[in-house]
């Protein structure tokens, strides 16, 4: 059975704007360009996919790492809309989970963050009901 896709994308480079500005003074010695390129590629090659069953995060430029978190493990979803990102219609989604390998998942600089958050919240509740899972903090 194929999973229904809720969101697929990468963080926006706009979320790195402050870092890129800090790299400018270091360009004459070559360090700024290297730092810029590393951050740019790291952001470009970070991919998120949220389906009705799980969150899949792929990272890495030369070596790839894929991390999957089942939706029923999501404990809390937070939406941050800093002023600078709001200027570009972007936001950050922070997902707290009970997963051991990735207790916090940050999706920086996404468009329509509130819509994604709401769809994710609905999918989490549906998945918990299907699995018969209840979230309990001890």
Q: Which descriptors would you attach to this protein?
A:
138 residues; alpha+beta; PH-domain like; four-stranded antiparallel β-sheet; three-stranded antiparallel β-sheet; 4 helices; elongated
Could you give a quick summary of the protein structure above?
By secondary structure, this protein is of the alpha+beta class. The chain has helices at residues 17-23, 31-44, 83-87, 113-131, and strands spanning 5-9, 47-51, 54-59, 65-70, 74-80, 90-97, 104-111.
Any overview of this molecule?
This protein has 138 residues and is an alpha+beta fold. The chain has one domain: PH-domain like. It has four helices and seven strands. The strands form two sheets. A four-stranded antiparallel sheet has the order 1-2-3-4. It has a three-stranded antiparallel sheet with strand order 5-6-7. β2 and β3 form a beta hairpin. α1 runs antiparallel to α2. The longest helix is centred in the last third of the chain and has 19 residues.
């Amino acid at each position: 059975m194929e999973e229904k896709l809720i969101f697929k994308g990468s963080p926006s480079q706009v979320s790195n704007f402050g870092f890129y500005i800090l790299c400018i003074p270091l360009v004459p010695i070559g360090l700024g360009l290297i730092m810029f390129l590393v951050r740019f590629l790291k952001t470009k090659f970070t991919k998120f996919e949220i389906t009705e069953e799980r969150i899949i995060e792929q990272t890495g430029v030369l070596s790839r790492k894929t991390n999957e978190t089942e939706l029923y493990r999501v404990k809390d979803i937070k939406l941050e809309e800093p002023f600078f990102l709001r200027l570009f219609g972007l936001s950050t989604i922070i997902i707290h989970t009970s997963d051991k390998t990735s207790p916090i998942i940050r999706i920086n600089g996404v468009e329509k963050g509130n819509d994604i958050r709401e769809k994710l919240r609905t999918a989490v509740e549906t998945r918990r009901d299907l699995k018969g899972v209840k979230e309990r903090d001890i």
